[in-house]
Fold this sequence. Notes:
Elements: E1 6-11, H1 17-29, E2 33-38, E3 44-46, E4 52-54, E5 57-58, E6 72-75, H2 79-87, H3 89-100, E7 104-108, H4 111-117, E8 147-150, E9 155-158, H5 164-176, H6 178-187
Parallel strand pairs: 1-2, 1-6, 2-5, 6-7, 7-9
Antiparallel strand pairs: 3-4, 8-9
Amino acid sequence: MKKNLSVLIFITNGVEDIETISSIDILNRSNIKTTLVSINNKREIKCAHGTKIISNIFLNDLKNININNKSAVILPGGLQASKHFQKNKILLKYLKFFKKNNKIIGAICASPSMVISSNNIFPNAKMTGYLGLKNLIPYQQWKKYPVYWDKRYKLLTAQSVKYAIKFNLKLIKILLGEKISIKIEQEL
């Protein structure tokens, strides 16, 4: 496996438990380093269904690390968390930086519609997202697939917690290739 790949996972209170934990677990299994970035500057984050996780770094401290060597960023869903992500100007600045530098941005469930689409970060990219918020994504951008990879714009999206594992396996396939993605899937 390739070494030194690293992904930022943005978190805040109300983030969807399984979407967050499965990203950490599955990416770590493939030797992709995950860094949990708290956007609310609290070390301990309480997920939507009560799971508590500990962040590695605060959003305000990202300026002190080299984010150029990060392969991707992930925005798990969760309605409460997506509302926080949607309005956080510093987070939006980093998402635009990743887009400008042709890095992968991944968003699950409520995050594609509430964060990516509502802030017009990818006005032409195709995406999927939580079906209950489908109306927030312009019709011409909507894809009905459970997980969708827009290779041109480097945007990976998924509809819901139900597809969190498939989302992460797709990210591994993009970063490390199909052989490793299949190997990790067989270990699950």
